[in-house]
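Agenda item 2: zinc ion complex prediction
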Amino acid sequence: METAIARRRERITCDEEERLKYGYNITTHFRYASQKRKLANVQAACGTPMFNLTYGATATIWRINRGLKKNREERGFKLNPTTGVWGDSKNPQAQQTPDSLHTEVNLMVDDTCNILVVEPLNVPADNREAFIATLQYVLETAIQAVYKLEANELDSERLGEGKYLLFWEAAEGGAGVLSQLLEKPEAFRKIADAALDICHFKEPKDSCIQACYECLLSYRNQFDHALINRHLIKPWLDVLLESNAIAQVKGLSRDEQYQKLLEQTDPNSNFERVVLQEIYQRGYKLPDAAQELIAEANCKPDFIYKEEAIAIFCDGSVHNSPDKRRQDQIERDNLRYKTGYTLLTLRYDEGWQDKLILLRSL
Ligand SMILES: [Zn+2]
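Presented output:
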């Protein structure tokens, strides 16, 4: 919107203070950068999974301000697109032409930063919401303590009704802390130790009932104060103290693998991409590589499954000529005899879709 104007204020008026008190309805969204995702999970000493971790370097996050929390019936903000003045009942400039006000205008900022998505597993069913909210601030506070971060260098939010916790390094450039959590097996044991200290379980503080400003409460999390209860999390922290983080080397997600294979296909063969798309859409296991040379047979199938030793050939119309057919035959016989690969030959003008059934059980 080119006609909108916004200015950062150094100080806020009492009117705005009042609005801040009620809070804005802000949602956070993110996207991993291609091939920059690392996975790990944290297990208790007995092997029970505690949470899954997904780290994304230089991910994109969007924060959308959808308006004041207390105005449930009124979504977004009002804007006069002609004058660029934000609509407000107390703004006479905007009120002059109420008809031309755009409503439901949402404000969005985006940023590139390192993120960590934590998916808690085996969460107690009782007080689930309070447990997850407390877990969020326990992890945030303890990570800040262990890695000596300022409060504004690490931020967090609950996503999907608490199914996931999103942490991001809010400082410019990032402190590189979140990636260390996946790389060092003892990282979460240290965090648990710090958290037990912060939550007064090492040195009891009788005046702290559920939580206080010395442990988990802050001005920034005031909307969650009613939920935060350090006692809910104590048993969980005791287990985390003996935990192990196990990195998963699998690396690419299904979508990333699909994108990688698309890029590896022969640019002149559209049929290859049609086949790949069909495999992807049916939910079958994706091939390991496209256009990769199998040296011992001097042959380059269109797709291969290495572990299962299956090679897929996608024959578009260029394979129609008798010469090309003869050459194909020699190469493929060679592959079969020298490597024991199973060949799956798909011709564009035949019922190739049925043949893909072979991949269903992989
Ligand atoms: Zn306290």
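Discussion summary: The longest strand covers residues 49-68.
Owner for follow-up: CH.
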